[in-house]
Amino acid sequence: MKRIAVFASGSGSNFQAIIDVVQSGELKADISLLICDKPGAFAVQRANAARIPSFVFSAKDYSTKEAYETEILAELKRHGVELVILAGYMRLIGPTLLREYQGRIVNIHPSLLPAFPGKDAIGQALAAKAEWSGVTIHYVDEGMDTGPIIVQERVRLDENETRESLQNKIHAIEHKLYPAIIQVLLTQGGIVNGKKTSTY
Ligand code: GRF
Q1: Would you call 138 a catalytic residue per the annotation?
Q2: pTM over 0.85, yes/no
Q3: Which of 153, 27, 15, 22 is nearest to 84 (CA)?
Q4: 88 CB under 6 A from ligand 1?
Q5: Which stretches in the chain have pLDDT values below 70?
Q6: Whether the CB of 190 sits within 6 Å of ligand 1
Q7: What is the structure's pLDDT at 191?
Q8: Residue 188: predicted pLDDT
Q9: In this predicted structure, what is the pLDDT of residue 127?
Q10: Cα–Cα distance, 139 to 125 (Å, whole number)
Q11: Cα of 90 to ligand 1 centre, how many Å?
């Protein structure tokens, strides 16, 4: 079974969706580790409930990103992690992790990138009165939501769309799309813009 790690900073509903499909047997993977940078995050409780080991840290306890990423890297290697899944991890991945895992780190973002990158993509779409937004799954590079796109799914904004209603629509898509794409990446290798590549 291929080993994956999930990185999360918050509630972890995407993490839970992945746990659920692994537990039901739909996704053939071993969630070996949760990496979380917020000690109080609900994602940590989800890991405990599912008996998934977690590495929880506070960036302020380290002098540099390199210092905490060195520890994360050691954990990933100790658990034999092959694919890294970012699911609401609110930090840029630095060179320490990218050097070892480039092409094997994916992220999910709640907009149609390159539109509305960075924080609060849902708020950005509402403020722009966009007609369409959506979900993007992409490889991670050193930029903020800039890596090669794997897949996108669109969502139409209603005229009376609220933050809550848009968030619910986006989460509903994410919770189905992310596990499905992880399955494809683990079994068939990589995809960029619908084309297969040799790595994850
Ligand atoms: C998701 O909407 C994801 O697209 C973004 O952060 C959010 C995380 O939500 N990167 P959750 O913690 O999985 O509920």
Answers
A1: no
A2: yes
A3: 15
A4: yes
A5: 190-200
A6: no
A7: 58
A8: 84
A9: 97
A10: 22
A11: 9
| 138-185 tens-digit pLDDT | 999 999 999 999 999 999 999 999 999 999 999 999 999 999 999 999
Residue with CA nearest ligand 1 atom 5? 88
Q: Hey, where are the domains in the chain?
A: 3-198
Q: Which atom of ligand 1 is nearest to the CA of 109?
A: 4
Are 4 and 28 a contacting pair, CB within 8 Å? no
3-198 to CATH, choices 1.10.357.10, 2.30.30.240, 3.40.50.720, 3.40.50.170: 3.40.50.170
Sheet of 3-8: strand order equals 54-56, 30-36, 3-8, 83-86, 105-109, 132-139, 149-156
* pLDDT number for residue 198: 52
138 lines ligand 1 (CB under 6 A): no
